[in-house]
Amino acid sequence: MNEKLNKYRNFLKDKVRLTIDFTKTDQNLGVTVPPIEKPYGKNEKRISLPTVEDFKNIDDTRLVSAIENRKSHRKFLPESLSLEEISYLLWATQGIRKKGRSVVLRTVPSAGNRHAIETYLLISDVTGLEPGIYRFLPLEHQLLFEFADNNLSEKIANAALGQYFIGTAPAVFVWTAVPYRMEWRYGNAAHKVIAIDAGHICQNLYLACEAIGAGTCAIAAYHQESMDKLISIDGEDEFTIYLAPVGKVKI
Protein backbone atom coordinates (compact mmCIF):
# COMPACT_ATOMS: atom_id res chain seq x y z
CA MET A 1 0.00 0.00 0.00
CA ASN A 2 1.48 3.36 -0.97
CA GLU A 3 2.43 5.97 1.61
CA LYS A 4 -0.02 8.66 0.51
CA LEU A 5 -3.01 6.30 0.50
CA ASN A 6 -2.08 4.97 3.94
CA LYS A 7 -1.87 8.54 5.20
CA TYR A 8 -5.28 9.27 3.72
CA ARG A 9 -6.93 6.22 5.26
CA ASN A 10 -5.33 6.74 8.66
CA PHE A 11 -6.57 10.32 8.69
CA LEU A 12 -10.16 9.21 8.07
CA LYS A 13 -9.93 6.61 10.84
CA ASP A 14 -8.41 9.01 13.36
CA LYS A 15 -11.12 10.51 15.55
CA VAL A 16 -8.75 12.91 17.28
CA ARG A 17 -9.40 16.52 16.28
CA LEU A 18 -6.36 17.86 14.47
CA THR A 19 -5.25 21.48 14.50
CA ILE A 20 -4.23 22.63 11.04
CA ASP A 21 -1.95 25.61 10.61
CA PHE A 22 -3.40 27.09 7.44
CA THR A 23 -0.67 29.74 7.30
CA LYS A 24 1.68 26.95 6.21
CA THR A 25 -0.38 25.57 3.33
CA ASP A 26 1.05 25.90 -0.16
CA GLN A 27 -1.64 28.42 -1.04
CA ASN A 28 -0.52 30.75 1.74
CA LEU A 29 3.12 30.12 0.89
CA GLY A 30 2.50 31.43 -2.62
CA VAL A 31 2.82 28.14 -4.51
CA THR A 32 1.10 28.18 -7.91
CA VAL A 33 -2.41 26.77 -7.81
CA PRO A 34 -2.67 23.26 -9.34
CA PRO A 35 -5.04 22.78 -12.32
CA ILE A 36 -8.57 21.52 -11.63
CA GLU A 37 -8.37 19.14 -14.57
CA LYS A 38 -5.62 16.71 -15.54
CA PRO A 39 -3.81 17.84 -18.69
CA TYR A 40 -3.95 15.86 -21.93
CA GLY A 41 -2.12 15.82 -25.24
CA LYS A 42 -3.49 17.79 -28.19
CA ASN A 43 -3.37 14.71 -30.40
CA GLU A 44 -5.27 12.48 -28.00
CA LYS A 45 -8.69 11.30 -29.12
CA ARG A 46 -11.56 13.35 -27.68
CA ILE A 47 -15.29 12.89 -28.13
CA SER A 48 -17.57 15.92 -27.86
CA LEU A 49 -20.66 15.28 -25.78
CA PRO A 50 -24.21 16.62 -26.12
CA THR A 51 -24.62 19.76 -24.03
CA VAL A 52 -27.41 20.75 -21.66
CA GLU A 53 -29.21 22.44 -24.56
CA ASP A 54 -29.13 19.13 -26.44
CA PHE A 55 -30.76 17.04 -23.72
CA LYS A 56 -33.95 16.28 -25.66
CA ASN A 57 -34.76 12.85 -24.26
CA ILE A 58 -34.03 13.38 -20.58
CA ASP A 59 -37.17 13.13 -18.47
CA ASP A 60 -37.97 16.19 -16.36
CA THR A 61 -38.22 14.13 -13.17
CA ARG A 62 -39.58 15.86 -10.08
CA LEU A 63 -36.98 16.13 -7.34
CA VAL A 64 -39.39 14.72 -4.76
CA SER A 65 -39.91 11.63 -6.92
CA ALA A 66 -36.19 11.20 -7.58
CA ILE A 67 -35.39 11.33 -3.86
CA GLU A 68 -38.29 9.06 -2.95
CA ASN A 69 -37.36 6.43 -5.56
CA ARG A 70 -33.60 6.54 -5.02
CA LYS A 71 -32.14 3.16 -4.13
CA SER A 72 -29.20 0.96 -5.00
CA HIS A 73 -29.58 -1.39 -7.96
CA ARG A 74 -27.54 -4.53 -8.57
CA LYS A 75 -29.50 -5.91 -11.53
CA PHE A 76 -29.35 -4.15 -14.89
CA LEU A 77 -31.33 -4.77 -18.04
CA PRO A 78 -29.42 -5.88 -21.18
CA GLU A 79 -29.84 -2.46 -22.80
CA SER A 80 -27.38 0.10 -24.09
CA LEU A 81 -27.01 3.61 -22.72
CA SER A 82 -27.06 6.48 -25.20
CA LEU A 83 -24.36 9.10 -25.56
CA GLU A 84 -26.92 11.72 -24.52
CA GLU A 85 -27.64 9.80 -21.30
CA ILE A 86 -23.95 9.44 -20.47
CA SER A 87 -23.42 13.14 -21.16
CA TYR A 88 -26.31 14.01 -18.87
CA LEU A 89 -24.95 11.87 -16.03
CA LEU A 90 -21.49 13.41 -16.41
CA TRP A 91 -22.96 16.89 -16.41
CA ALA A 92 -25.04 16.11 -13.31
CA THR A 93 -22.05 14.78 -11.38
CA GLN A 94 -19.10 16.93 -12.49
CA GLY A 95 -20.42 19.31 -15.14
CA ILE A 96 -19.83 23.04 -15.41
CA ARG A 97 -22.80 25.28 -14.64
CA LYS A 98 -21.04 28.64 -14.77
CA LYS A 99 -17.73 29.96 -16.06
CA GLY A 100 -16.29 33.32 -15.04
CA ARG A 101 -12.99 35.09 -15.45
CA SER A 102 -11.56 33.72 -12.24
CA VAL A 103 -13.92 30.96 -11.17
CA VAL A 104 -15.56 27.83 -12.59
CA LEU A 105 -18.62 26.51 -10.79
CA ARG A 106 -19.83 22.93 -11.12
CA THR A 107 -23.08 21.10 -10.50
CA VAL A 108 -21.77 19.67 -7.21
CA PRO A 109 -20.21 21.46 -4.22
CA SER A 110 -16.56 21.08 -3.33
CA ALA A 111 -14.54 22.42 -0.42
CA GLY A 112 -12.98 25.69 -1.53
CA ASN A 113 -14.14 24.94 -5.08
CA ARG A 114 -11.02 22.79 -5.45
CA HIS A 115 -12.67 19.69 -7.02
CA ALA A 116 -9.98 17.10 -6.40
CA ILE A 117 -12.00 14.33 -8.10
CA GLU A 118 -11.48 13.00 -11.63
CA THR A 119 -14.12 10.90 -13.41
CA TYR A 120 -13.26 7.83 -15.48
CA LEU A 121 -15.76 5.77 -17.44
CA LEU A 122 -15.37 2.07 -18.12
CA ILE A 123 -17.55 1.64 -21.18
CA SER A 124 -18.83 -1.68 -22.47
CA ASP A 125 -22.17 -0.81 -24.12
CA VAL A 126 -22.83 2.85 -24.91
CA THR A 127 -24.14 3.84 -28.33
CA GLY A 128 -21.53 5.83 -30.22
CA LEU A 129 -18.59 4.84 -28.01
CA GLU A 130 -16.20 1.98 -28.59
CA PRO A 131 -15.62 -0.17 -25.51
CA GLY A 132 -12.75 1.03 -23.38
CA ILE A 133 -11.69 3.45 -20.70
CA TYR A 134 -12.39 7.17 -20.94
CA ARG A 135 -11.78 10.23 -18.78
CA PHE A 136 -14.26 13.07 -18.51
CA LEU A 137 -12.98 16.56 -19.33
CA PRO A 138 -15.45 18.83 -17.51
CA LEU A 139 -14.01 22.10 -18.78
CA GLU A 140 -14.48 21.00 -22.41
CA HIS A 141 -17.47 18.71 -21.74
CA GLN A 142 -15.73 15.97 -23.68
CA LEU A 143 -14.57 12.41 -23.17
CA LEU A 144 -10.89 11.63 -23.55
CA PHE A 145 -10.28 8.14 -24.89
CA GLU A 146 -7.64 6.59 -22.65
CA PHE A 147 -7.31 3.09 -24.07
CA ALA A 148 -9.15 -0.06 -25.09
CA ASP A 149 -9.05 -3.11 -22.86
CA ASN A 150 -10.11 -6.66 -23.58
CA ASN A 151 -12.33 -8.37 -21.03
CA LEU A 152 -13.05 -5.08 -19.28
CA SER A 153 -16.23 -6.37 -17.63
CA GLU A 154 -14.38 -9.31 -16.11
CA LYS A 155 -11.47 -7.16 -14.95
CA ILE A 156 -13.65 -4.55 -13.24
CA ALA A 157 -15.60 -7.28 -11.43
CA ASN A 158 -12.39 -8.93 -10.22
CA ALA A 159 -10.96 -5.60 -9.07
CA ALA A 160 -14.21 -5.05 -7.16
CA LEU A 161 -13.55 -8.18 -5.11
CA GLY A 162 -15.85 -10.45 -7.08
CA GLN A 163 -18.91 -8.20 -7.18
CA TYR A 164 -19.79 -9.56 -10.60
CA PHE A 165 -22.96 -7.53 -11.11
CA ILE A 166 -20.67 -4.54 -11.79
CA GLY A 167 -19.46 -6.22 -14.96
CA THR A 168 -23.02 -6.44 -16.32
CA ALA A 169 -23.44 -2.64 -16.40
CA PRO A 170 -22.93 -0.85 -19.73
CA ALA A 171 -20.94 1.87 -17.96
CA VAL A 172 -19.04 2.11 -14.70
CA PHE A 173 -18.14 5.45 -13.17
CA VAL A 174 -14.78 5.39 -11.39
CA TRP A 175 -13.86 8.44 -9.34
CA THR A 176 -10.27 9.12 -8.42
CA ALA A 177 -8.75 11.61 -6.04
CA VAL A 178 -5.91 13.94 -6.98
CA PRO A 179 -5.15 14.91 -3.38
CA TYR A 180 -2.73 17.76 -3.99
CA ARG A 181 -5.49 19.88 -5.53
CA MET A 182 -7.10 20.00 -2.10
CA GLU A 183 -3.89 19.83 -0.05
CA TRP A 184 -2.68 23.00 -1.75
CA ARG A 185 -5.36 24.92 0.15
CA TYR A 186 -6.13 22.80 3.21
CA GLY A 187 -3.03 20.77 4.04
CA ASN A 188 -3.83 17.59 5.97
CA ALA A 189 -7.45 18.67 6.37
CA ALA A 190 -7.83 17.99 2.64
CA HIS A 191 -8.15 14.25 3.17
CA LYS A 192 -11.44 14.60 5.02
CA VAL A 193 -13.15 16.91 2.54
CA ILE A 194 -12.06 14.85 -0.48
CA ALA A 195 -14.18 11.99 0.86
CA ILE A 196 -17.08 14.37 1.46
CA ASP A 197 -16.80 15.66 -2.12
CA ALA A 198 -17.00 12.10 -3.46
CA GLY A 199 -20.27 11.64 -1.56
CA HIS A 200 -21.77 14.75 -3.15
CA ILE A 201 -20.90 13.45 -6.61
CA CYS A 202 -22.30 9.96 -6.11
CA GLN A 203 -25.57 11.23 -4.66
CA ASN A 204 -26.07 13.38 -7.74
CA LEU A 205 -25.52 10.27 -9.86
CA TYR A 206 -28.22 8.38 -7.94
CA LEU A 207 -30.74 11.18 -8.47
CA ALA A 208 -29.81 11.80 -12.12
CA CYS A 209 -30.26 8.09 -12.91
CA GLU A 210 -33.93 8.44 -11.99
CA ALA A 211 -34.44 10.75 -14.99
CA ILE A 212 -33.27 8.16 -17.53
CA GLY A 213 -34.78 4.97 -16.15
CA ALA A 214 -31.40 3.80 -14.89
CA GLY A 215 -29.96 2.76 -11.60
CA THR A 216 -26.65 2.62 -9.83
CA CYS A 217 -24.97 1.24 -6.73
CA ALA A 218 -22.18 3.02 -4.86
CA ILE A 219 -19.15 0.77 -4.41
CA ALA A 220 -16.39 1.38 -1.89
CA ALA A 221 -15.19 -2.23 -1.58
CA TYR A 222 -12.46 -2.93 -4.12
CA HIS A 223 -8.82 -3.95 -4.36
CA GLN A 224 -6.95 -0.67 -4.38
CA GLU A 225 -3.91 -1.61 -6.45
CA SER A 226 -5.98 -3.60 -8.96
CA MET A 227 -8.44 -0.78 -9.52
CA ASP A 228 -5.69 1.82 -9.89
CA LYS A 229 -3.83 -0.41 -12.34
CA LEU A 230 -7.00 -1.05 -14.35
CA ILE A 231 -7.40 2.64 -15.19
CA SER A 232 -3.65 3.18 -15.41
CA ILE A 233 -3.05 5.65 -12.57
CA ASP A 234 -0.08 5.66 -10.22
CA GLY A 235 -1.96 5.10 -6.92
CA GLU A 236 0.10 7.82 -5.26
CA ASP A 237 -0.57 11.24 -6.79
CA GLU A 238 -3.92 9.90 -7.97
CA PHE A 239 -5.89 6.93 -6.66
CA THR A 240 -9.35 5.40 -6.90
CA ILE A 241 -11.74 6.51 -4.18
CA TYR A 242 -15.24 5.40 -5.28
CA LEU A 243 -17.07 3.71 -8.15
CA ALA A 244 -20.61 3.11 -9.37
CA PRO A 245 -21.98 0.93 -12.20
CA VAL A 246 -24.88 2.37 -14.21
CA GLY A 247 -27.45 0.57 -16.31
CA LYS A 248 -31.11 0.52 -17.21
CA VAL A 249 -33.34 -1.03 -14.57
CA LYS A 250 -36.84 -2.47 -14.38
CA ILE A 251 -39.23 0.22 -13.23
Please describe what this structure looks like:
The protein is of the alpha+beta class and 251 residues long. The chain has one domain (3-36, 47-248): 3-Layer(aba) Sandwich (NADH Oxidase), CATH 3.40.109.10. It has 7 helices and 9 strands. It has helices spanning 3-13, 63-69, 83-94, 152-159, 179-186, 190-209, 224-230; strands spanning 46-48, 96-99, 104-106, 117-123, 132-137, 142-147, 171-177, 214-216, 239-248. The chain has a 7-stranded antiparallel sheet with strand order 1-6-5-4-7-9-8, with helices on both faces. Strand 5 and strand 6 (142-147) form a beta hairpin. The protein is globular and about 55 Å long. It starts with a helix and ends with a strand. The mean pLDDT is 92.
Task: Fill in the keyword field for this structure.
two-stranded antiparallel ribbon; 7-stranded antiparallel sheet; 251 residues; globular; NADH Oxidase; alpha+beta; single chain; 29% helix
Q: What's the tally of helices?
A: 7
Structural class: alpha+beta
Total count of strands: 9
Mean pLDDT level:
92
Reported by name, the CATH topology is NADH Oxidase
Q: Largest beta sheet: what is the strand line-up?
A: 1-6-5-4-7-9-8
Rg from alpha-carbon coordinates? 18 Å
Low-pLDDT stretches: none
Helix amount, in percent?
A: 25-40%
User: How can the largest sheet be summarized?
Assistant: 7 strands, antiparallel
Q: How would the global form be characterised?
A: globular
The CATH C-level name is: Alpha Beta
Order of helices and strands: HEHHEEEEEHEHHEHE
Tally of structural domains: 1
Determine the N-to-C terminus distance: 41 Å
What fraction of residues sit in β-strands? 15-25%
Q: What is the CATH homology-level superfamily?
A: NADH Oxidase
Q: What is the CATH architecture assignment?
A: 3-Layer(aba) Sandwich
